[in-house]
Design a protein that fits this description.
There is one protein chain. With about 375 residues, the protein is mostly beta strands. Helices cover about 5% and strands about 20% of the residues. It is built from one helix and 16 strands. The protein has one helix at about 20-35, and strands at about 115-120, 120-130, 135, 200-205, 215-220, 230-235, 240, 250-255, 255-260, 265-270, 280, 315, 325-330, 340-345, 355, 365. The strands form four sheets. Strands 12-13-14-15-16 form a five-stranded mixed beta sheet, with no helix packed on it. A four-stranded antiparallel beta sheet has the order 4-5-6-7, with no helix packed on it. A four-stranded mixed beta sheet has the order 8-9-10-11, with no helix packed on it. It is rod-shaped.
């Protein structure tokens, strides 16, 4: 708002009559009031007149608009605010900002900070132009990342805090937590920053699928993506492993798959083939160091059928001597250890039902009584 008259220190002139001094005094009071009232309370009360109602700055180039030229010394034993103590009451639906700084960064040197709070000349909290911050004298990297070596962020127990790292944020070092990381009806995400696809590996903790305390190793879209494994507490102090949809639990060793637990309870070892619900499929040899008890049917090489002359694909070894039980159609033609037995599935009588391997690698029939 423009003032009534321009400031003029040459008025009144020395030639003006003394009888006009009252007009000059009133004009001076008007000039002072209009200029002081821009930032001060004026003409309101004897208690408040002269106090600041605002601080409006028209800063000159290359100057520090607000600066204490001589630091004030605080000696009061009762403590209190040392430098800035502000209070305000908000009672409006409008969006407000308690502290706001808007920098038009046309050019600035490396290391420029939006905020620099120091103790004894060392930055204890600083925010750079990219939003990275430094705590406790350290150096932060990545948006919203604290890099201080000794900095501590303390949150009251009655306060709900959120730490959010936007996409692309990076912690370039170890993150040490001397306490608990708790996902309480929420999630904690730890993902591979180099992968942007849905297959990004992550850790989720919280109550996202209805179980408190769960830890979920899965993709970023853990509700619909099949590559996932969930560890949950079953409520009795144990642990339950859940797979969602048709996702199997696959165990790898040496860069190759060695075991797979399929949905429905089927287990395959050495192969990814689905054995059927509740079945065990082993692509290799089963070695038992003790007794093996079967409450049901044992099928040996069921896929081999009944080969003519027998086959080494379907046999049952007895001990470590190499003696085994073979089966097939027709007379045996395979080579077997002495004492091995051959069961013929198409026998025509008691004289060709059973065979035993002899010392010279031939087979002798065992005559049945009927």
């Amino acid at each position: 708002m423009a003032h009534t008259t321009a400031w003029n220190e040459a008025s009144p002139a020395g030639t003006d009559l003394a009888s006009t001094i009252d007009n000059s005094m009133r004009a001076m009071k008007l000039d002072v009031r209009e200029r002081m009232a821009v930032d001060h309370i004026w003409g309101v009360s004897l208690d408040d007149d002269g106090k600041h109602k605002r601080v409006g700055l028209v800063a000159a180039p290359d100057t520090v608009p607000i600066q204490t030229l001589v630091p004030n010394v605080m000696t009061t034993p009762t403590g209190g605010a040392g430098l800035i103590d502000l209070k305000q009451t908000w009672n409006t639906p409008a969006i407000l900002s308690a502290i706001r700084t808007d920098i038009t960064n046309m050019q600035s040197g490396a290391g420029s900070l939006l905020m620099d709070l120091k103790v004894n000349g060392i930055t204890m909290f600083g925010v750079d132009m990219a939003g990275n911050f430094t705590i406790g004298g350290g150096g932060g990297t990545g948006g919203g990342t604290g890099g201080g070596q000794t900095g501590v962020i303390t949150v009251p127990t009655t306060f709900t805090a959120y730490v959010h790292m936007a996409a692309g944020a990076t912690v370039s070092g170890d993150l040490t937590v001397n306490g608990n990381i708790i996902g309480n009806n929420g999630n904690i995400y730890i993902r591979n920053p180099s992968a942007a696809s849905d297959a990004t590996i992550g850790v989720f903790m919280g109550n996202n699928i209805g179980y408190n305390g769960q830890i979920i190793f899965c993709s970023s879209n853990h509700v619909s993506h099949p590559d996932q494994l969930i560890f949950r507490s079953n409520g009795t102090g144990g642990m339950r492993i859940d797979t969602l949809q048709w996702a199997p639990i696959v165990i790898w060793a040496g860069g190759a798959e060695v075991m797979r637990l399929h949905q429905g309870g089927g287990v395959s070892i050495g192969t990814a083939e689905y054995p059927g619900a509740g079945n065990l499929l082993v692509q290799g040899t089963i070695v038992a160091r003790g007794d093996v008890n079967f409450a049901g049917v044992v099928n040996v090489a069921s896929a081999a059928g009944s080969p003519v002359g027998g086959s080494i694909a379907g046999r049952m070894f007895m001990g470590t001597s190499g003696v085994a039980i073979y089966f097939g159609r027709g007379a045996p033609t395979i080579t077997a250890w002495t004492g091995s037995i051959y069961l013929r599935s198409d026998s025509t009588g008691p004289n060709n039902r059973f065979y035993v391997s002899t010392q010279n690698n031939t087979w002798a029939t065992i005559t049945a009584s009927a």
